[in-house]
Target: EBNA-1 nuclear protein
Amino acid sequence: MAIAHPYLLFLGDAPDALSAKTADGVARWRRDWCVGQLRLDGCKADLGLPDKSLEEAAAEGAKTLIIGVANRGGKFAPAWQESMLKALDLGMDIASGLHNKITDLPAVAAKAKELGRSLHDVRHPTREFEIGTGERRTGKRLLAVGTDCSIGKMFTALALEKEMRARGMNADFRATGQTGILIAGDGVSIDAVVSDFVSGAVEFLTPANDPDHWDVVEGQASLLHPSYAGVTLALVHGAQPDVMVMCHEPTRPHMRGLPNRTVPDIKDCIAVHEAAARVTNPHAKVIGFSVNTAAMDQAEAEKYLKDLADQFGMPAVDPVRMGVAPIVDLLG
Model:
């Protein structure tokens, strides 16, 4: 799917900042695509963007209303539909990352059809994919992988793309999850693809390209997470990465959602991800670490990163605290 921008970010009646994390991701990485935010009465979230009415946003050229808030159960609140219908009347498309579909809202779907507007349910791919082949493709690919879920793979990939582009490198972020798709404007939510076709979907997302072009691919889950390793394996095979960056959070007490399972050893994670990647790219390797040190003070973080870099002989960075330049230095 391709989502038209500029965006108006809809925060609805979000009770706190966390409820608007999807919109926050878009505002953080694509602020220049956003004309403002739309907040209903009682909204407790604020992205620091100008508050705009639908009419004001339309006058400034907004093309898509992004539903950037999630309520309990991931459902569309009845109070939101008035804004959605008005946005369609004013010439905007609508995009959402919620589990529930915009297209299942009868009034909204009917209005969009009447006016010829697009409704993007980014968690739900709208096309079919071929089975992956593993055939070598031109171009270069970097994949963010991790020791666990929800550990900063999207943030890392976006930070790498930003640094690479700042250096004039030919690089594009490739989104594989709903927030990433809203940030990129297109992509495939691979956890909604039938399992047999996930590697093919990623091959579609990262096709043959110019020899100097880098696809910077958003990773999902971890090969050592018992709940979600299946989608990770297909992603690794389909991405056919030349290099990988291992994402990690050193203070995490256990794997996400599995209180009785500790986070696996980094050395084991490197070994299993390299082995899987070499099925489709015999030269694939991990070249560095992206570490979330938010729970550490500066001195602790610096020591941890230095020790990790010394242990494995490759750069270890916190992309928030220090950026990702040492990793990009390796990409040439």
Observations:
- The radius of gyration is 20 Å.
- The chain is about 30% helix and 15% strand.
